[in-house]
Amino acid sequence: MTSSAVTSRTPALLIDSIQAFSSCEIADALVTLECHQGGYLPDLNLYSPDERDQGLARKLCGEAFTVKMVLASDTKSPRPSEHFVDAAEEGTVIVISCPPNTRNAVWGGLMTARAQFRGVKGVVINGRCRDLAEHREAGFYVFANSHSVLGQSTFTRPSILQKPIIFNESLIETDKRIIINPHDIIIGDEDGVVVIPKALAEEVIKICSRNVEIDKKCLIDLKNGRSIKETFAEHRGR
């Protein structure tokens, strides 16, 4: 479990370059760089936009705006001075960490409406969402562990904004927990969601660009009948 606090905004050009690659390609690059767990955020589902909406690319990419939720009964943890959606900056992806085993949603249709107005790109939730039809109608990107019919305020509340969060805090194996810092880069698609530490972004782009070209050569050989063993030995060196 690693962390490196970063406070400055991530350049848009860097995010645009990252967006050219898939979550799988980026995870492979992060593994090469020995990044913790390849940056993979497990057990997330893409609930919106709807897969039948052919007008939208099903890929989310932006810098993280982090939110830590606590139980509503927690009176000791800090309280933010404004709602986290109002605080989120344009071009960000809101990343929400929830207390383990909460059954309520922490994101609903009204939040999507406000987030879109603010220019937020999407939300990634280690927890639940609700109002699926509203997110899909809006074409807003929502990744979450699951969904619920229960609202947020009775059960949980926002506590800390724009500080490092442990995304999968419920994992018993602490070495597999992932820390997300504000302005780390989040990319999500149909295969899953990955967090890229901001400091590694340029190296990730270099490795992904190289690997994509290698895979193109592999694909040509495989389609022409060459074996995987021979193809990988020549182009991947193994």
From TrEMBL:
User: What is the required cofactor set for this protein?
Assistant: Mg(2+)
- Specify the superkingdom: Eukaryota
Q: Which UniProt keywords apply?
A: Magnesium, Metal-binding
Q: Which residues bind Mg(2+)?
A: 131
Q: Which residues bind substrate?
A: 108-111, 130
Q: Which Gene3D superfamilies match?
A: Ribonuclease E inhibitor RraA/RraA-like
Q: Would the keyword Lipoprotein turn up in this protein's UniProt record?
A: no
SUPFAM superfamilies recorded = RraA-like
Q: Which GO terms describe its molecular function?
A: 4-hydroxy-4-methyl-2-oxoglutarate aldolase activity; metal ion binding; oxaloacetate decarboxylase activity
Q: Is Cytoplasm among the key words of this record?
A: no
**What is the protein's name according to its record?**
RraA-like protein
